[in-house]
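Translate sequence into structure tokens.
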Amino acid sequence: MTTHPVPATNPSAPVLADLRVLLLEPDLAGCLVGLLLSDLGADVVRWGRSRWLGSDKLRAVLGRGQTDLEAMDPTTTRDSLLELVERADVAIGEAGSPSLGPQDFAALRRAKNPGLIHLDLPAFGPEDRVEDTPAWESLVNCAGGVFQKPLGRAVLHDIPIASVMAGLFGANALLAALYARARTGHGQDLQVCRSDSGLFSQVLTFLIRTGVPRAFLPLKMAATPFMGSFPCADGRFIYLHITLPNHAARMLRILEHSGFADQARALRRVLSTETLKDPSQVKSVPEARAIRERFRATFRLRPAAHWEALLGEELCCVMVRTTPEWLAEAERTGMSDACRVEDPEFGQLLCPGPALAIDGIDWAARPRRLAQDTREIARRWSAPRSVPQPTAGTPPAPAPGAPPLSGLRVLDMSRVIAGPCAGRMLAELGAEVTIVQSPEQLDWALSFHLVFNAGKRSLALDLASAEGKRRLERLLETVRPDVLVQNFRSLDVARAVGIHPADLRRRLPDLVNIHLNAYGHRGPWQKKPGFEQVIQAVTGMQVLYGKGRPRLYPAPVIDIGSGLLGALAALAGLLRRQRDGSGCDTSTHMTSAAVMFQANTLATDIKAGSAVATRLALTRNGSVCLAGPEDDLRRFLRQAGFDGPSARVRFALSSLASLRKRLRQANLADRVGVVPLLDPRRLTRREPRTGPLPLACRRAYPGVERPLLFLRFPMHLQHTPCVEVRPPPMVGQHGRQILEALGETSAATEVPYPTPKPYPLWLLDLIRWGYYAWRSGSL
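Result follows.
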């Protein structure tokens, strides 16, 4: 780690103080990037309105703390916009009228603003087969495979997963480019495709659909009765997730000591010894069915809030809520998930709170401001931007073409998805990432390891033992990482392991420490456990996906979103270290990401008939998605004969090309679009022998017999490109190499992958447990 002298700056100033950002006709992804940058202190100005965002109120909700320029101001000209870009640090998006595109940003960078960073967030990628399709959110979701499931038919929903993911990838790309700019003095062009971002959110779904090894499929885990929603006495639901060892035993003890001894005895009568040891691996389908029935009978005895209060302090048991209910709970308990601002157009608005926390920097909600014309902003940005110079003490500038974080070291102490996803982002951006993993096999988490530990070195340590803690201490002293990532649910656990932020700060003053957990560090929820499924239930996402009833969205989008927020926290910490020379503690949490995915629910001002309607149909080319304003889509279906009893037959006889031709003939092609459902075969090409990796291909994985799907992060940085990271190592694969560098001579632990069952037995399990999971509502 490089020691950074402290320049004369205000350490409590926001990380991006004085940064000038211009958003051009922002859609949802662009608005989220603007919100994240504004919360870090940037001066964000938004010009224009995207027709694809739809809701003016949503635009206001996501615009708190920023300045809006009116797009239709007749004084706005191409020259006045170019003047703002000339004075900006960052430009996001493009302008349609007056036209302002990539060539203009490149020309300005060459002539007047060499530090300019431009981020483009296109809706579709070159492989999406969309032509000039309108960029409605449901069509972008469809192109990214967001409606598809590991098993069964696609399910439509209104969760803007692709755009939220693109906003998070885009914000990471921007902060990485800012970090690189301080080292090189140059700006660059960035691109994050929204449909490709949606595809990465479904990486586990398509890993399964394209052929994950049999030993990596947790069939019993998917069907366990210890994970799911149950109706209660008041008609509401609780969501239970007690699949780790000893969870079932702890629940039984709580029931026995809380007036439910009869119910606990009924459960004990059907629980086998094997299931009691590991609730994720129920011994048989009849036992799983009997346990589920006992749970149903028990939870119907009391209201949902009673069970949350009784079980939720120690176990993952929450009352299923709607999004407004969760935001009200967050406000009531002092969490950072929600805030209120007085908007100049809509009055008081409930908005998402800050997604990141950085020690020593206070945050306060600020209202949106309205500017009359570009001249007002030009006066505010009157000082011309000079070429950014590397800060004193900054690590040496990377070689030309090197990734932005080259030369930095990261120690990843996290597990499951969110933390490892943050670590993978830092690896893709060029850091050397070492992950410390448990030597015990976690069969249900193996598929997560295949995706989120790509590009890392792996060391297996038993941190419950004195030897494991001693080796970790030695690793910290020798490696002296620039960034440490951890996602223990409570910092009390981090202290027991030896990586509490306060202890690390004394030993490693330059360290940027990242902590991810479920509910943040404020209020009574902060130490409660949480998994993806639980956070979906408590924040309203299950109700949103199930259209009024709890239904689990079958991909870990909140986990992945939280991981991207964790990486963003790391980059913000590194930028702060560039500025003032010292490390810092940063944090984020899963419910913040969950609120982002449900931002649409905070605005309900769309008029009847103009709301976007979506329909799936089976054609000669396979399944397609049609979307557009309700009235326009209804008119097209009626005119084309797709609205009667024979609609399915007519669709089946039609091709994708003929549907697009009919839309053009009806003069609706600019308002109604049609996109094919993502074909998994597109993801199964082999890794090329030469040239760059495609977004998706099959690659050889260490310790795995056959090639598997590998998805790159969907970020393109022009001058400091991401690393083409290797597939993940086996657990402990680099242990010997790492320990030898520490001067350790004792043997390292390498954990082999489990041996798959013979195919006939595995197929029987798949049929038996897969069918039960489907019938019980788990899939």
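Note: The first helix runs from residue 28 to 39.
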